[in-house]
Amino acid sequence: MNYKKLLLLLLFSIVLPQRDVGANTTNDEPLTGKEMGRRQSIDGIAAFVGDKTILKSDINQALSMAIFQRRLNPNNDGDKILQLKQEIVRSVVNRKVVLMMAELDSIVVLDKEIDRTLEDQINNIIAQAGSEAAAEKALGQPLRVFRREYWYDIKDMMIAQKYQQRLIGKVSVNKNDVVSFFKSYRDSIPPFPTMVKLRHLLVKIEPGSEQVNKTIALLKNLRKKILAGEISFEEVATQYSQDPGSKNSGGSLGFVRRGNLVTEFESIAFTLKPGEISLPVKTEFGYHIIETQEIVGERIKVRHVLLSPPLTDGDESAAYEKALSLKDSSKTILAFISTIKQHSMDDQTKENGGSLGWVDPAKYPIPEFGLVLGQINQNECAGPIQSEYGYHLLWVEASKPGGGADLSKHWNEIETLALNKKRGEWFESWVKGARKNFFINILD
Fold this sequence. Notes:
The chain is of the alpha+beta class.
């Protein structure tokens, strides 16, 4: 196995036994010609796994997503797409096997977890496409339809992953395993990047009270006009809302599950009666007026108008000066952590002292960090550094050397690669054995 294949093994959570895609098996025994013909005549079915069916539409949807994400061109990449389809069929069959085994072990995931993962997937698609409109064009359907249909696929994926993690958790490596792995793959392991252990404090650039009051007043006036029948909610959203994802659909967010909206927005939306419009509500995105249209259990159909108060040069200067003053009180790591917990505006890292863990400066999502980390002294507060999020103070606690794989320098990283390889091979074998428990017939 070369290292490229090893990476594929590590990236795909369900490892696929290599079988002919066209094989038709009943516990690895072939079907009779009569049985095969009868099954293949059933329109829309790609495969049978036990008493479950896999639809061609499911395969085609997964294939469309994969083509889009890998930027393949159907006119030029026909062979690659055919191979990709075969891989997807094997993957879907194996996932169905894992799901049926997970069902026997009563593995479940919460709806909130599914909603959160689905939104992350959709945001990734939008980011790759460049806009929601481009994403919908690439997917061939509106995002609200994709969101509804793909929810169950995400659920299956998460159950399969949870079950897999439970199974492979018992697989471990010892020192000899790591050394043996390194000897086998040292020439194909790419160089490791230099890593830094980083903390940060964020000061956001916030609008002043004058602009906030103007925004709230405008939203109150628009709400008043809607209630008086002078203008419709849809017209207000289209004309005024600064939410690019909903303004062209009259502010509609469609049906959303509880837990999928920011807390401040959701707490108001679920308390409104259908048809009721809220007063301005503040969230991290700005100020909203919200109309709840329908509530069905834990799902809500809602629309909104979003306005963000404009920022001024004075607002930016105030944020910079605040960051500078916080830097002056951060002479030691303990003082910096204390300052972070009191003043940082990054809610995700505030409570853990601003820790970002070990990061690769060249690939960190905030590019400004990568530009300055090579110039920052270890164990001292640096900044303020401006990004799209505001002003940051940074503290480099430690660093790890990069370069070619070396057991003395990169033991932990190499150990992780060795463990993932061993777990992948173990799970591949497990799936192969689990397949024998079910009738499997691939038609497409």
